[in-house]
Each structure stands twice: as structure tokens, then as C-alpha cells.
């Protein structure tokens, strides 16, 4: 009976994935700050928007995947700024894979790889935005009127 419990425990660990068992999880928070502050930043993965920070500085919770995230920030009077947040392997993956091979014959590493739990992104991103020279007027402003000269 004890052997059945051991096999069941190993199966549960294998199916849940090592990265999630040791606390890395399937999600990650990415913080974005821009210079200047107050930009709107949209996150894209594989060509689709996955979330937006409406005003920097801000944070967004994303799913870990093996695909890069492209962050595009906009602010009136500044050119669009883009940052590529590369997906990379979590530092402890090598040790996890070695333990996984001994415990679950590699099943949990395959699960982590398929779900992206063994990947991570840069957590703190700072993006510099450049002035375009095209400043927009505040919403309630009026154009400056020039005096009208009349000929008599």
C-alpha cells in the first residue's frame, strides 16, 4: 500500500510541474516605469495584446510563456517607445530537471516546458521616451488670438 501512495505522490508532483511546486508559479508581475511618467503601455505576445498599464509607473501580471513580450508605450508629445522583454529559463531549472529525472522520469519538466512555468521575464523595466516636438494642447485650452488690424 505504501508503494501506491508513493507512486500517487510522484504522479501529482509530475503533473503539476516542478517550477510551480517550488514556488515559481505560472505567472509573474512585470513593473514598468517610463521617463517621463504617465505613459500608457500595452503588452503584446505573439502579435496579440495581453494587457495594458494605463499610466506608468505600473505593474501587470502576465502568464509565463516561452515567447517574448513586446511592451509599447505612448504618451502625447513623445514618440512610441518599445521594449522587448525576452523570455528566459528560470535559474534553478537545471537542478529541477536533475531532481525531476530521478523522481518523475522527466514528466514535470515536460509539463513546465509546455506551460512556460520554467521561463521568466525581466521583472523591472524602465523605458526612456523621446520628445517628438509635436506637443498637443491641453483639452480646455483656446488658441491665442491675434489682434485684428483694420484699414480706415
Which helices and strands appear, and what pairs or packs with what?
Blueprint: H1 2-16, H2 18-21, E1 27-35, E2 40-45, E3 48-53, E4 58-63, E5 69-75, E6 78-85, E7 88-89, H3 93-104, H4 107-115, E8 119-120, E9 124-128
Parallel strand pairs: 1-9
Antiparallel strand pairs: 1-4, 2-3, 2-5, 5-6, 7-8
Helix pairs in contact: 1-4
Main traits of this protein?
152 residues, alpha+beta, 4-stranded antiparallel beta sheet, elongated
Q: How would a textbook summarize the main sheet?
A: 4 strands, antiparallel
- What order do the strands of the largest sheet run in, or round the barrel if closed? 3-2-5-6
Number of strands: 9
> Structural class of the secondary structure composition?
alpha+beta
* Total discrete domains: 1
- Give the low-confidence spans: 5-23, 107-112
Helix content: 25-40%
Q: What value does the average pLDDT take?
A: 75
What's the end-to-end separation, in Å? 112 Å
The dominant shape is elongated
- Please state the CA-atom Rg, rounded to the nearest Å: 25 Å
H and E order: HHEEEEEEEHHEE
The portion of residues forming beta strands comes to 25-35%
The helix tally amounts to 4
How is this structure best described in words?
With 152 residues, the chain is of the alpha+beta class. The protein has one domain (2-128). It has 4 helices and 9 strands; from the N terminus they run ααβββββββααββ. The strands form 3 sheets. The protein has a 4-stranded antiparallel β-sheet, with no helix packed on it. It is elongated and about 105 Å long. Residues 5-23 and 107-112 have low confidence and may be disordered.
